[in-house]
Amino acid sequence: MKAILGIAAAAALLVAGQAAADDQLALAQKSGCMACHQVAVKVVGPAYKDVAKKYAADKGAADRLTKHVIAGSKDVWGPVPMPPKGGNAAVKDEDIKKIVTWILTLK
Fold this sequence. Notes:
The chain is mainly alpha-helical. It has a single domain (2-103), classed as Cytochrome c-like domain (Cytochrome Bc1 Complex, Chain D, domain 2). The protein is 54% helix and 0% strand. The protein is built from four helices and no strands. α3 (61-71) packs across α4 (93-103). The longest helix is centred in the first third of the chain and has 29 residues, at 2-30. It is globular and about 55 Å long.
């Protein structure tokens, strides 16, 4: 019986985790991020999975990348600059932090 409950709990966590990931993807879409980025394919900016891979061992990546998105950056992934807030000034800083945190979980 304990094994069945353990399996059920693990399944519930997986479903909850997928729901949270779906929410963050929807937030990135709503915020306009997907105009220049995709999860697995480079478009104008790097693929989110490439970002996650590059910063996988970097403990300060979430804070630094959040600042890069909020303020904009250049010469990080090549010659195309990242405009402040990805060009969408209406995006809340806390939403950017959520999106960056999600990006860093991608594999």
